[in-house]
Amino acid sequence: MDIKTLQLRAEKSILRSNLDFKLNTTREKAILAHTVKLNEEMGELCNDILSILKLQRASKLENFEKSNMYAEFADVLITVLQLASIAQVDMERAIRDKMKKIETRKKKEKKED
Ligand SMILES: [Mg+2]
């Protein structure tokens, strides 16, 4: 099957699906935009980590500056915090609850050993 045929088949399957991407509110649009932005920032961080590990092609390694990786970590965290705010998630509480869950699981696993 050629790419054009494959693309047309994929397009038809989109039309057949019942996906409804109507975003009615500014908040919904902001959640979607920040979710996409988070993926972009994660990609940039992954790119820098690949450079640190020297797993990039030479042309990318030539332009890499280690200090940029710090900025990418910050971008990821800032975007997560922005997304959480828009989604009305209390990050302090979410992290505290999750850490408690992880610690409980680890204690349980330790007892089972
Ligand atoms: Mg960035």
From TrEMBL:
Protein name according to UniProt: NTP pyrophosphohydrolase MazG-like domain-containing protein
Naturally occurring in which organism (per UniProt): Candidatus Roizmanbacteria bacterium CG_4_9_14_0_2_um_filter_39_13
UniProt xrefs under SUPFAM superfamilies: all-alpha NTP pyrophosphatases
NTP pyrophosphohydrolase MazG-like domain: residues covered: 37-108
InterPro entries: MazG-like_dom
One Pfam family hit: MazG
Source lineage: Bacteria, Candidatus Roizmaniibacteriota
